[in-house]
Amino acid sequence: EAGVAQSPRYKIIEKRQSVAFWCNPISGHATLYWYQQILGQGPKLLIQFQNNGVVDDSQLPKDRFSAERLKGVDSTLKIQPAKLEDSAVYLCASSSKGYYTDTQYFGPGTRLTVL
Amino acid sequence: AQSVAQPEDQVNVAEGNPLTVKCTYSVSGNPYLFWYVQYPNRGLQFLLKYITGDNLVKGSYGFEAEFNKSQTSFHLKKPSALVSDSALYFCAVRAYNFNKFYFGSGTKLNVKP
Hints:
With 115 residues, chain A is an all-beta fold.
């Protein structure tokens, strides 16, 4: 079974530029998550999708971050404009149904450096 | 409020010795507890989870964890450490009927030959 795919793996941009990350979850998984992991910290949930609907985006900085999951499969996370504090690893995860007991499976992450 | 604490930033152990990585939690209601491992430049890999039932949970790569409700702990253990176990370990909690997954800050495990 193929895992969660993410691209790009690394991205370096200047502050105030825009950037987009892509995630392809495990086939058949209804729930998709985006996390931000700042160096030395645990992942923090940014947004959760159930199929193509948003379940939770309470910690997403909506003035600069946006995410979509068209057709309930792939997802993109965008930052516009980027700030220095956005430097982090952005992790995508998926789970089969989104139940509280479900295991989340993570992709390799995208390491973003904002200069 | 839901939270997870990993009180040790780093744990050092010699190969062949038992290891313990500590985790305590705070949730309203019954907790669902998870352990993940992260190797350099890779995503998190699932090790094990506690949902209900037997307090001792066995997982991947010989790891196990014990749920202790009275101490609100879910410590990760392995009887005999390997050098290849050296990595960053994260504990996470989710409460029943509460959507978010809360991660601890991580514990770096160093296993020396």
